[in-house]
Design brief:
alpha+beta; DNA-binding; 10 strands; 41% helix; homodimer; three-stranded antiparallel sheet; 8 helices
DNA sequence: GTATCATGCTAACATAAGTTATTGAAGTCG
DNA sequence: CGACTTCAATAACTTATGTTAGCATGATAC
């Protein structure tokens, strides 16, 4: 099952026809990108909506003097910006971290969805609202949390999101970000990211080595990061997820 | 003309019927709130979408230990969270800064829009996408800009947004935020906000006194804040806005 | 297999921003 | 009108985080 379907089904129950529609769209117009290349650039006219099929990517913005901020991460199953094509130009860039494959979803696909696939439309709204909530949480993260809280929080978020897409097991996941990436995402310097990771390691909250992240005690990491998963809205009618589901 | 209509018409040309529909919705189910009170609280079930008719409000999040972050400001004409009612519970609170009046927009209103008012639907998508872009820009602001750049940037943003809703003249606007509000929005301490404002004053970039903000040289303030208005997407087919329109 | 480069790690030092505290001015309420 | 409270301003001091630099490791390329 595709990561997208898997993720959306955490929120909305999709029909066989819904799943078929999504899987069909995900199989057309596929492109692949090498690591550390741009999928789209600030200033360009947005044409399609991108669905991440595999690999990690990020959205970033850059100041004239070169300072760069990663403003979000894209994991498999994530959709870049619903309806972005109504805007004139991109206000940010999208770049890959690892090798990435994407499917380009044209405008017509969304017309079809809103005409005949109400459950998918609802699921897409959920995706949009959750992305907005994540962005708000990042604002909170950068504005109020200390370096180690911030790092712990980010690791929790990525772990939860990977798990939602079926990409993490009980306590570990593949983790391709470099310390430089983490620095650009957290607004910390590379050196301080290193110090912060050492600190989390020393507290036995993380094991991070060779592109693999292990979280031996998720509960403790969550409380170290003041992480409350409510903003991910991992619940569907009549059901609540706990930290382990 | 209402602030909402005025703002949306910067992006989409609305018909008389569109404007009537919006103004009618804005006149029903109106509520007023005193300054410094909550319109909605984290954890509650969202019921309606709120449209700000008058006054300033903000979205904020709070950590268990009391640290508070303002994650966005709402100005007259702003809509709080389109389609928020599909989520189980609020992941943030909405509070007033000044006295505020709002109109509650029920689910059925949006059903009507998507059934019979395509231009409004597009305008609402624009609103949603711009809000997302603003939130990303705040991430950038908190992650990369220094205190004075950050403050300059925030003031530019608020000024542009007020102007868009018809609430600012050439170089000044009403400005009800306290230094404590600015601190919660920028992730700085109150004392440092004060220092930063003094610095901007000393450079003749702002005059801020008694709830009134004057920007004697917007161009210079923009460059001090590395402010690029592209993320506000102030453009419509066949037209570009410059800093003074 | 050696050269090269990206990445991770650490130390020493610099600085932007936070903290605590005090004061005065400006509103607001009885 | 005086009593309170909020807000703004400033000083003195502390601290978290940034900067620069150097070295080690491991991967990749020739």
């Amino acid at each position: 099952m595709s990561h997208l379907v898997r993720k959306l089904e955490n929120f909305v129950r999709l029909s066989a026809a819904d799943r078929l529609m999504l899987n069909r769209a995900a199989a057309q117009r596929v492109r692949t990108f090498a690591p550390r290349t741009d999928i789209a650039r600030e200033g360009e006219k947005p044409k399609d909506v991108h669905l991440i099929l595999n690999g990690w990517a990020c959205r970033y913005k850059q100041l004239e003097d070169g300072r760069r901020q990663i403003v979000s991460f894209f994991l498999p199953g994530d959709i870049c910006d619903l309806n972005i094509f109504i805007l004139r130009e991109m206000d940010h860039s999208i770049g890959t971290i690892t090798p990435v494959s994407i499917a380009d979803l044209p405008r017509e696909f969304f017309d079809e969805i809103s005409a005949g696939y109400p459950r998918i439309a609802t699921a897409f709204w959920w995706e949009t609202l959750v992305n907005a909530a994540i962005q708000r949480e990042w604002t909170m993260n950068l504005g109020q949390r200390t370096a180690s809280e911030r790092m712990a929080h980010l690791l929790c978020e990525l772990f939860f999101r990977l798990r939602l897409a079926g990409l993490a097991d009980d306590s570990s996941c593949s983790f391709p970000l470099t310390q430089a990436d983490l620095a650009e995402a957290t607004g910390l310097s590379k050196v301080h990211v290193n110090r912060t990771l050492q600190e989390l390691r020393a507290s036995n909250l993380i094991v991070l080595k060779g592109k693999m992240l292990v979280l031996p005690d998720l509960e403790r990491l969550m409380s170290a990061g003041l992480f409350n998963a409510n903003y991910l809205h991992l619940d569907r009618e009549g059901r609540q997820l706990d930290a382990n589901e």
